[in-house]
């Protein structure tokens, strides 16, 4: 199976480096992406918006001959959902890593402080305690050393969708910061955060208790969860 890995904010393809080896060892072809504006700290980010990142994922899908599994972490979940909407017939399963699909008109996070065209990684005290579970001092230092400013437009642009076949693409949600029981409660309550997820016809939940960055805090467990999801996509 072809697996495309889409990182969350402030991260490039190398952020999946501890997750990809088990996927490759299992015989899959793995394509971790570095999205536009995330190539380097000094890369130009002016004019790069959410649609540019979605288009980059769609281009990766189109470059492959077979159906794919898309994996999106954090803000990457909104991006892969846009790609599912663009290519619902090419995506066998969408895997949301501590993330979910972003519906029409939604934004990923327009409250993150920006500096010009950049959204730098905020100080750790800006995050909730649940975000930082298992992210010890060494992992925090390594993350901050590798962090690349996110293009402001990606965080603030509204999502635009147009093909309701996206709701027929099976989904796996790997729940870290918020356990699946909480997500189920939100769906039952009609919470807007999960409104788009609630419309998808085939959703499975996998609990992986840790903070918001399991590719750093629980990479082996995350790889196993992705492999299980891919196996169900065959």
From TrEMBL:
It holds the Pfam family Abhydrolase_6. Keywords: Hydrolase. Residues 3-225 form the AB hydrolase-1 domain. The keyword Hydrolase applies. Gene3D superfamilies: alpha/beta hydrolase. One of its GO terms (molecular function) is hydrolase activity. It comes from the Bacteria. The keyword tRNA processing does not apply. This is Alpha/beta hydrolase. It comes from Arthrobacter hankyongi. The lineage of its organism: Bacteria, Bacillati, Actinomycetota, Actinomycetes, Micrococcales.
